[in-house]
Each structure stands twice: as structure tokens, then as C-alpha cells.
Amino acid sequence: MLGAKQVDVFLTNRMGKRLNYSSQHLMFGRLLRRAGIRAIPGQRRPSLHSFRHTFAVKRLTQWHRDRKNAQELLPHLSVYLGHVGPASTYWYLTATPELLRTAAQLFDRQNQGAATK
């Protein structure tokens, strides 16, 4: 990738090399089978990306609940997910009912002070 920064690898295989996505995908499938985890009929099967999505949404929701500046903290989440920046992370932040409810409560709290001025 042109202009990409070289970074140290965090997770490696037994030979000290970068993890390969297809190997991770195969191992994840084996782990699901061993654990007896199956797709719910009519829904998508569990995937590595669904864990990343769930983590990202729950982290953002918790930041809102803790009244932290999620916009300011988003670059930290991007780094944790291995993204170059927040633009790549936004794809994981689907509007779940819990996230929308938490964001709406935060919006209401912030605008109550503005309405009384």
C-alpha cells in the first residue's frame, strides 16, 4: 500500500510471522464447531468481524454512558482495531438500539442546558 507505515506485528504465528487471515478464518470455524456454536436460522453465522463490530459498538456505547467525549476517543478505538484512522472504524459502528438510545440520552442532557438559557 502506497504511503502505509510499517508497524511491528502484535499477534504472530508459531514462526513469528504476521497472522494470515485465511488461517484465522479456518481456526475460528473449528473453534465454533468444537464449542457447538451454530448460526441461528435466518441469521448470519458468527464471524471474526462480528466480534470486532460488537466490541466497537459496546465500547462507543460505554463511552456515551460514562459521558466521555466519544468523538475525541474514536482514534483510540481505531488503533485498537488496527485501522489507520477513524474513517475505517465508522463501518463497525452500526446504529444498534442500545447505542441510539444512549446517544439520544446524551443529546437530551446536552440540549436541556441550552433550552433553559
Topology:
Blueprint: H1 21-35, H2 48-65, H3 70-81, H4 86-89, H5 97-115
Helix pairs in contact: 2-3, 2-5
Q: How do the helices and strands follow one another from N- to C-terminus?
A: HHHHH
Strand content range = under 5%
End-to-end Cα distance, whole Å, is: 51 Å
| Structure classification | mainly alpha
The amount of helix comes to 55-70%
Describe the structure.
With 117 residues, the chain is mostly helical. The chain has a domain at 47-115. The chain is built from five helices and no strands. α2 packs antiparallel against α3. The longest helix is centred in the C-terminal third of the chain and has 19 residues, at 97-115. It is flat. The N and C termini lie far apart (51 Å). The model has no long low-confidence stretch (mean pLDDT 82).
What tags apply to this protein structure?
117 residues; mainly alpha; 5 helices; 0% strand; flat
Short description:
Helix content is 58%, strand content 0%.
